[in-house]
Design goal:
By secondary structure, the protein is of the alpha+beta class. It has one domain: Hotdog Thioesterase (Thiol Ester Dehydrase, Chain A, Roll), CATH 3.10.129. Strands 1-2-4-5-6-3 form a 6-stranded antiparallel β-sheet, with helices on one face. The longest helix has 17 residues. The mean pLDDT is 96.
């Protein structure tokens, strides 16, 4: 799935769309996507000047967005829904993510219900674990 397909699933837009491509999608099971991290990211201006490091919360957000694509992909009424990030468990950060890295995001479903989902996310750079977390999300009606 290219960026257009991702943008058809998610309402996020620049500068907060944190997935560039989906390489694998097994409905209701697993998704593998990528975020190409460049020096042009707006957060690098302040995190940290002279030592640019992608904030850990944004790595988790990228995993959550990949999970939202997985959650919404086969949903017929996805244009009228949003996926809210409702919780995070067991988050660990193992490696800094810097400009030039390609962040590989793997998210697998642990428990899927009609309106909620618990997923396990991993973010890797060149096969090395950068971050991992369990992510909880809820499907809600889009208003306004």
């Amino acid at each position: 799935m290219d960026i257009r397909g991702i943008m058809n699933c998610l309402p996020h837009r620049y500068p907060f769309l944190l997935i560039d491509r989906v390489e694998e999608l097994r409905p209701k099971k697993r998704i593998v996507g990528y975020k190409n991290v460049t020096m042009n990211e707006p957060f690098f201006q302040g995190h940290f000047p002279g030592v640019p490091i992608m904030p850990g919360v944004l790595i988790i957000e990228a995993m959550a967005q990949a999970g939202a694509v997985l959650f919404l992909h086969d949903l017929a009424e996805r244009d009228s829904k949003l996926v809210y990030f409702t919780g995070i468990d067991k988050a660990r950060f193992r490696r800094a993510v810097v400009p030039g890295d390609r962040l590989r995001l793997t998210v697998e479903v642990i428990k899927l219900r009609t309106r909620t989902c618990k997923m396990r996310g991993r973010a890797e750079v060149d096969g090395e674990l950068a971050a991992e977390a369990n992510i909880l999300s809820a499907l809600v009606d889009r208003t306004g």
